[in-house]
Structures are given as structure tokens and as C-alpha cells.
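Go through this:
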Amino acid sequence: MLSSFFGALRRLSVLPLGERLPESAGRENEELALFPVAGLAVGAVPALCLVLCGLLGISSPLPEALAVAALAAVTGLRHLGELGRTGEAVFSGKPALGALEVMREKRVGAAGTALVVLVLLGKYSALVALRAEMTGSTLGLVLAVLLMTCIARWCALVLASYSEYARPEGGADESLIASAGRREVWWALMVTVVSVLALGLLALGTPLGFMRGVLALAGCSLLAWFASIYFSGRFGGVTGECLGALVEITEVLALVLMCILPAASPPARPAPGPANGAKVVQIQPPKYGPAASPKSGDASPKNEPADPAPRPVESKP
């Protein structure tokens, strides 16, 4: 099991784990089932970058940019290159066999480059928006990154299980895609659900909340199913480049879906008032009588009574 986990990490990252052992051949099904766990290990690198930036007091948006760069670096730009080549094949306008030949080329043109730039900008913008919505919570952003990388690798397995290998002559990833069966999907689904639920429980104490991860898992899984239908109609199946492209796209979608739900607002603080049992003394302004209002020169205005009416003068006889 441990060797299969390391094999999955070798496929998904450039972490220094040594060469692939000869006895690990034929264990592609076990490696596929552990893709979500390997995704958590990959996501730990950008998550650690966010934590270090928080400890050093680096403010947004620099930590988000460093996290996106760290994620691209730990994968060796492999998925981004596969995204660019898949984009070139999709937008080439050629039939299936011609598009697969375009995908085989290492050169990436304008369409693939634009797609890669848009995906990187999407990740960066979503992370910045998510931090702002969560009022700067570093722990919530770390959990969101771990959810993103775990869900995206699960979606790669969904795409492989619902598709056939596209190249008639075979290729390097043919055995990996062919080994994606129902058993591997069920094992990976259980691992993914447990991971999402565990991260969601940890997120209950943060503005991220519990339902964001569940929403991202459901939406990205649906996208992976639609992608299998599209690639089967466009190329007659999928290749390793298609799996890497889906990983990049579902990472963006997971972050966007986690931005949809509103952030949990803190409880409202009561208005400041008197302590329990204390009496409130209201001071009312002095009232002036109808005779006259106080003049500006008077030091202390007084409410003097009006002069009594004059008495009649009695005449003596």
C-alpha cells in the first residue's frame, strides 16, 4: 500500500521519492485508488507556503501568488503543460486522429498558452476572493487548498474510469487508464468522501464552513463526467494529457464553487448598555416658561412669574 502511494505521488508530482520500483509495475489500479490521498500530499506544499506567509506577517495578495506558484512547482508544471497541449488539440479544428497528433507535440501555441494563463489567473483570483470573503482566515484558506487538490485528483480518476484510451497505437498512460475500474472508483470515492468530511469538520471553526467542500466535490464530479462524454466524442477517448488538463480545470472550479456560499458571519455583539439591575437616569433639558426665552447675555436664565394685573384705585368720598 505504501509503495502504491509513492507511485501515485510520482505520477502527480516531482517530489524526490526515488525511481519507480520494478515490482510496482501492474499496480496502477492501487495507485489510481490513492490519487485523492496523493492530492492531499501535493496540496500540503502550497498550504505550507500559506502558513509560513501568515507567520511572517505577509499580507494578501502575495501569499496567494506564492501558493499558486508552489503548486505549479511541486507538479513540475506537468499538468499545466498537459493543459496547454490539450487546449491546442481541442481548438485545432482537426479530426480526432489529427488532434491527437497535435496533442503529442511538445510545442504549445497561442490557444494553449492563453488557456494556461487563464487557469493560473483563475486560481489566484479565487484564492484572493476567498480570503477576502473569509475575513483573512489563513486556516480556512489552507483547508480550501487541501480540498481543491484532493477533489481534482479524484476527478482525474472519474474521467479515466468512464473513458477508453484514445490512441490506437497505445501510449505511456494506456495501462493506467485501462486499470480504472469500478473497484478503484469505489475505493477512491470512499477516501475522497472521508477526506472532504474530515476537512469540513476542521473548517467548522473557520468562515470556510462545512458545505463548501461538499458543494465543490459534487460540482467537480459532475464536470468530470461531462468531460468524459466530450473527450470521447472529440478524440474517441482520453489520454494522459486529458487527465492533467482536467486536474487543472477542476482546481479552478473547486475554488470558484467554494466562493459561492457566503462566509459565516460572526455573531452580532449586543449594543453597549447599563449593567443588570442598574437604574437609568435621564437628564432632561430645562423648560422655559412662556414669558421669554433666555437671552444670550444672561448667565443663568430664570423662569420668573408674570407681573400681576394692576388693582383698581378706590376714590374717597
In short: Residues 2-13+33-260 form one domain.
